[in-house]
Amino acid sequence: MIRWILVVFLALLLISWFSPGLLKLGFGKLPGDLRFKLFGREVFIPLTSTILLSMVAAVIAKYL
């Protein structure tokens, strides 16, 4: 259980680091990606983008 929480946390962390480059490709603007302000800070939760990128990674891993 803790391993999955760590994997999800690391995936969200990596996507947030690469989000400026991914925004140019259209990721982060998909329906289901949450962006809101909380206590003066902008919070970005890329649900749809994470699912889409994980599906792409699964397809790549299957054929390599």
Written description of the protein model:
- It is a single chain.
- By secondary structure, this protein is of the alpha+beta class.
- It has one domain (2-63).
- 62% of the residues lie in helices and 19% in strands.
- It is built from 3 helices and 2 strands.
- The chain has a two-stranded antiparallel ribbon.
- It is globular, with a radius of gyration of 13 Å.
- The mean pLDDT is 83.
Key descriptive features of the protein:
alpha+beta, transmembrane helix, membrane, transmembrane, 19% strand, 3 helices, DUF2905 domain-containing protein, 62% helix, DUF2905, 64 residues
Furnish the topology, listing elements before pairings:
Elements: H1 2-17, H2 19-25, E1 33-38, E2 41-46, H3 47-63
Antiparallel strand pairs: 1-2
**What characteristic shape results from the CA principal axes?**
globular
- Which regions contain 5 or more consecutive residues with pLDDT less than 50? none
| Mean pLDDT across every amino acid position | 83
Number of helices: 3
Radius of gyration: 13 Å
Number of strand elements? 2
Note the beta-strand portion: 15-25%
